[in-house]
Amino acid sequence: MGTPYAQFIKGHIEACRYYHLSKRQTLATRLIIGAIYAYGNSTVPPFSEQFHMGGANDLRAFPLRSIGPGSYHSSSRYAYIDHSGDFKLEANIEWRFPLVKQLHGALFMDAGNIWLWRNDLSRPGAELRWTTFGNDIALGTGIGLRYNLKVLLLRCDVGIPL
């Protein structure tokens, strides 16, 4: 019918491993790798399908959608729109330990970023390059409290960017 539509392929892999240090202490690790690639009549995947980084569920020490892509940074009022990417790499490690009854503590460290497959002149430093890969990784650490209600886990984390 002549209507353009988005053509893309997307996938991600998540691997988690838990190490029981003692009966009540656990070291939880997680690695996520995700990629999206636009092809055909699309050069950019839909915004809603792209990856973003920062916030309560990935890099907890950074505000929502504030990381990446790559070394690109925007201080615009609508910067969250510019902070989306095609490739995601994230790693977390968290030590969980009991405090009092159902209240548990956690110490964590998060690392990761997002990148673009293609060069974008409006976002310098956003493209995935192996020469700058290590410098692009954002790192944060912090502490948290978990209150376990058996059917619901209430979580409060405070993170510090490194």
Structure write-up:
With 162 residues, this protein is mainly β. Helix content is 5%, strand content 45%. The protein has 2 helices and 6 strands. A 6-stranded antiparallel sheet has the order 1-2-3-4-5-6, with no helix packed on it. A hairpin with a 4-residue loop joins strand 5 and strand 6. The longest helix is centred in the middle third of the chain and has 4 residues. The protein is elongated. The mean pLDDT is 90.
Structural descriptors:
single chain; about 160 residues; mainly beta; six-stranded antiparallel β-sheet; 2 helices; elongated
Q: What layout of secondary structure does this protein have?
A:
Elements: E1 8-20, E2 26-38, H1 79-82, E3 87-100, E4 103-115, H2 133-136, E5 138-148, E6 153-161
Antiparallel strand pairs: 1-2, 2-3, 3-4, 4-5, 5-6
Q: Rg from C-alpha positions?
A: 18 Å
Helix content: under 10%
The chain-level structural class is mainly beta
β-strand percent reads over 45%
Largest sheet: 6 strands, antiparallel
Count of DSSP H/I helices: 2
Overall spatial form: elongated
How would you state the average pLDDT, rounded?
Answer: 90
How would you write the strand order of the largest sheet?
1-2-3-4-5-6
Cα separation of the termini: 51 Å
Please provide the ordered H/E string of secondary-structure elements. Answer: EEHEEHEE
Number of strands: 6
Low-pLDDT runs of 5+ residues are none
What's the quick description here?
The chain has helices at 79-82, 133-136; strands at 8-20, 26-38, 87-100, 103-115, 138-148, 153-161.
